[in-house]
Amino acid sequence: GESVGLHLPTLSVQEGDNSIINCAYSNSASDYFIWYKQESGKGPQFIIDIRSNMDKRQGQRVTVLLNKTVKHLSLQIAATQPGDSAVYFCAENIAGTGFQKLVFGTGTRLLVSP
Amino acid sequence: EPEVTQTPSHQVTQMGQEVILRCVPISNHLYFYWYRQILGQKVEFLVSFYNNEISEKSEIFDDQFSVERPDGSNFTLKIRSTKLEDSAMYFCASDEALARDSLLFGPGTRLTVL
């Protein structure tokens, strides 16, 4: 069935390091992928997205890479800061209709030490 | 910055009781969603809503669930007869247009069914 999964449940880094969070997806038909950040007690917060016709997209301190051949998605955070500590989810849109029917991964907890 | 709001932040109910979770989406948004997250699990799609009708729903969204936009501002999720397994965080989200870059999520309502 459709699933989105994560390889690492917890990632611990030092402040200033670069962080890489990985995600595997299984639905070949998905054409839109998003990374969300979730802090304790809050809803998912959009970080960056990418469509399937791209393999890389950059934002402010964040980069998303998409490898459709192996169905792999990654989030790179440059110069990680303590405020980046949160749970990060990848999600794919399986709707195919434009509606945001998202399948989320299980989440990776990022811990940033000062 | 506009944001999605949800009330209450925490709802405790007895099994078998009806609950209504309320959301105020962003005012110019037209597409509305409910997602839920059971503690320690993935965020799961429940339903999408547009033009006063359901556009998509998941297997979770059975006959015990309903959604409504009773006026121009509120978007509600009703669970008619709650079960223990309905205990979760329920997130409302809204979007301005189809295939936009991101959903905006609310902070969630924690539902506890005893």
Order of helices and strands of chain B: EEEEEEEEEEE
Instruction: Give the quaternary arrangement of the chains.
Output: heterodimer
Secondary-structure class of chain A: mainly beta
**What is the typical, i.e. mean, pLDDT of chain A?**
88
- What general form of chain B does the structure show? globular
Order of helices and strands of chain A: EEEEEEEEEEE
Name the beta content range of chain A: over 45%
Gyration radius of chain A (Cα, Å) is 13 Å
Q: What is the β-strand count of chain B?
A: 11
**How many helical elements of chain A?**
0
Distance between the termini of chain A: 41 Å
Helix content of chain A: under 10%
Continuous helix count of chain B:
0
Give the integer mean of the pLDDT values of chain B. 92
Contiguous uncertain segments of 5+ residues of chain A: none
Main pleated-sheet profile of chain A: 6 strands, mixed
Secondary-structure blueprint of this entry?
The complex is a heterodimer of chains A (114) and B (114).
Chain A: E1 4-5, E2 10-14, E3 19-25, E4 32-38, E5 45-51, E6 56-58, E7 62-67, E8 72-77, E9 86-93, E10 102-104, E11 108-113
Parallel strand pairs in A: 2-11
Antiparallel strand pairs in A: 1-3, 3-8, 4-5, 4-9, 6-7, 7-8, 9-10, 9-11
Chain B: E1 5-7, E2 10-13, E3 19-24, E4 31-37, E5 43-50, E6 53-57, E7 65-68, E8 75-79, E9 88-95, E10 104-105, E11 109-113
Parallel strand pairs in B: 2-11
Antiparallel strand pairs in B: 1-3, 3-8, 4-5, 4-9, 5-6, 7-8, 9-10, 9-11
